[in-house]
Amino acid sequence: MKRWILIPLLLLTCTVAFAQDSYYMNQAKSYMRDAEYYQRQAEGYERDAAYYQRRAQSYMRDSEYYTRQKNFDKANTYNRWAQDEMDKANTRMRWAQDAREKASTRMKWAQQAMEKAKR
Predict the structure, then answer these.
(1) 3-state secondary structure of 71
(2) What span, in angstroms and rounded, lies between the C-alpha atoms of 75 and 77?
(3) Cα 33-36-40 angle, rounded to 5 deg
(4) Whose CA, among 10, 18, 42, 103, lies 20 to 30 Å from 35?
(5) Residue 4: is its pLDDT beyond 80?
(6) Packing angle between helix 72-118 and helix 2-68, nearest 10 degrees?
């Protein structure tokens, strides 16, 4: 009679231990997917920042041209536009840095979950 009680109890214990390992492995995979997402997001923000920097340079060249032509109203307008584009670029770079930090955090969490799964 004791055998019939011990065998299911032993099977239940093994099942719970396996499910616990599986949980941590699934959690680690989820964190890794999140980290990849944030990494891609950071790369996108960096591409956007480079685009805005190129536009700012273009506006600065136009401003210089209009300054040489002594059309100071247009030169000031292009200067303002260049500054706006640089502000956008700086914002995107800050967002990229935040996304990279989130990716790094998720990778640390994944590492911790993998260590728990190995125990």
Answers:
(1) coil
(2) 5
(3) 140
(4) 18
(5) no
(6) 170
pLDDT, one tens digit per residue, over 12-34 is 454 445 556 689 999 999 999 99
Over residues 52-78, the mean pLDDT reads 97
Q: Distance between CA atoms of 64 and 70, rounded to whole angstroms?
A: 10
- 82 to 6, 9, 51: CA distances (angstroms): 76, 72, 12
Token representation of residue 34: 């999140």
8 Å CB contact between 53 and 85: yes
Residue recorded with tokens 């292009």:
78
Q: Are 78 and 62 in contact (CB under 8 A)?
A: yes
Q: Which of 58, 57, 62 is nearest to 77 (CA)?
A: 62
Mention every residue, 6+ apart, whose C-beta is less than 8 A from residue 78. Answer: 59, 60, 62, 63, 66
Q: If you average pLDDT over every residue of the chain, what do you get?
A: 87
